[in-house]
Design brief:
two-stranded parallel ribbon; 21 helices; globular
């Protein structure tokens, strides 16, 4: 079998089994390339997320009228939030397209758009140079990023899931979120280093552009990796069933025909993203704004927690292959239900050790989701609608619940004066996620719906 081949003849035992589909024998080298290419796209998305979040104050000075720092910061985060509004639209476009023309082509397109949007931000003139055109161009670039992101996560997780052997899908899928953490750490770490090395004037005049311009070379590398890949075996087999190798499924069927799976997807993504955005996006602001904790130490604690999560990620992914996705996700839900209040009380105690312990506990619970979801979510849907249905369910849930988490929790604290609201919000999400886990079917070690069994090639590690 050549290195490009991903399908081998069925074994004698399989061939002898009546009506049993021929198994797909995966090429280990091709699987590794697929994982790297998919993870790099996620890393790039979250590199931008980390950069934008950590350099928001400087961006406010560059792109919006001077005079009111608070208004500048709100405007900057307004442009950031705008990307979440178009994510479902991107999912509705790229998801069905991925089910029609192929996962590889659409993932290459989303990579180009993400890199172009991020790179363009680094080229936009300041408000002092072109006036109101500067924030308008920033908003356009953010909308391009958000639109492309609508097809990125669902496509990347689908791509890895359809390439991976059934018994290693959890381990291989976990590297997708490894890329997420690596990208965020790289983006936030780069801004932290630049802030320490550059003067405030240098950072405002030219230094802020550097992290965004780095997206250009990153995008070229990611595009090269994705263009080297062949289409997934599952999609290729589905395409052969269609007359013109272009399976066509109406958008209505992706929603109405999959409504039960979509509801489960929304529930699982809700608990996944509420806890994710709470820990990685909101908690630094909570530490500094609500608890008046030292900003530098707060950011370093979050980066440290993410580093620990990166280390645990592949081990937790392998665990989902051994014990199942449901037990691991259920453990995360139970943990957030029982430990959110104690962890937040530790964080509110204020000492560096207490904050690190509280954040670390929440981070390890979050790993239960980051390790299991990339393999659990694609298994909710059959091959012919997997990319489209997952894109719609995932992005609707992220836009309604995940991306709004910092805003909603801040509003709840303001309305009630109760500083424990972050814990209660995570507990509510855990209840919804727990119900979704109860209703989902275990997928570990089993073929994806609508696909033949997939086994590791002879030289798989």
């Amino acid at each position: 079998m050549s290195t490009a081949s991903v399908v081998a003849p069925a074994s004698p035992v399989k061939a002898a089994t009546a009506k049993a589909p021929d198994p797909t024998v995966t090429d280990p080298a091709l699987v590794k390339r697929a994982v790297k290419a998919a993870a790099l796209g996620n890393a790039m998305e979250w590199f931008d997320f980390g950069v934008y979040s950590y350099i928001a104050v400087t961006l406010g000075k560059v792109f919006f009228p001077s005079g009111n720092p608070t208004a500048q910061l709100l405007s900057t985060f307004g442009a950031f939030a705008a990307a979440f509004l178009v994510r479902p639209l991107g999912g509705m476009v790229f998801g069905p397209l991925g089910d029609r023309v192929g996962r590889q082509k659409v993932l290459a397109l989303t990579m180009i758009m993400m890199a172009a949007g991020t790179f363009a931000i680094g080229l936009i003139p300041s408000y002092a140079t072109i006036g109101v055109g500067a924030p308008i161009l920033l908003l356009v670039a953010r909308l391009v990023q958000g639109f492309s992101t609508g097809g990125e996560y669902a496509g990347a997780s689908t791509f890895i899931a359809e390439y991976a052997p059934d018994k290693r899908r959890g381990f291989l899928g976990s590297w997708l979120e490894f890329g997420t953490l690596a990208g965020y750490i790289a983006g936030a770490g780069l801004v932290t280093i630049m802030t320490a090395l550059l003067s405030a004037d240098d950072l405002t005049s030219w230094g802020w552009r550097i992290p965004f311009l780095i997206a250009g070379p990153m995008g070229i590398i990611g595009l090269y990796l994705r263009l080297r890949l062949e289409e997934t075996p599952a999609f290729a087999a589905e395409a052969e069933k269609a007359e013109n190798n272009r399976p066509k499924t109406p958008l209505r069927e992706m929603v109405a025909g999959q409504w039960r799976a979509l509801l489960l997807c929304v529930g699982l993504v809700l608990v996944f993203n509420v806890t994710d955005y709470m820990l990685l996006s909101y908690m630094p602001s909570y530490l500094t704004g609500q608890l008046h904790y030292d900003e530098t130490h707060g950011l370093l604690v979050v980066l440290g927690v993410m580093a620990v999560m990166m280390i645990a990620q592949p081990f937790a992914g392998a665990l989902t292959d051994r014990v199942g996705r449901r037990p691991v996700i259920a453990t995360g839900c139970a943990g957030f239900l029982l430990l959110s209040v104690p962890a937040l009380l530790l964080i509110r105690e204020g000492s560096l050790l207490a904050v690190a312990l509280g954040m670390g506990a929440l981070g390890l619970l979050l790993v239960c989701f980051t390790a299991a979801m990339p393999s659990a979510l694609p298994a909710l849907f059959p091959t012919k609608v997997r990319y489209g249905s997952l894109s719609i369910g995932f992005n609707v849930s992220v836009s309604l619940f995940g991306g709004t988490t910092p805003l909603v929790v801040t509003a709840l604290i303001g309305a009630t004066g109760n500083m424990m609201m972050p814990a209660y919000y995570m507990m509510a999400a855990a209840v919804i996620g727990g119900f979704a886990v109860w209703r989902m079917t275990e997928s570990a070690g089993r073929p994806l719906p609508g696909s033949a069994p997939s086994v590791a090639g002879r030289h798989a590690e």
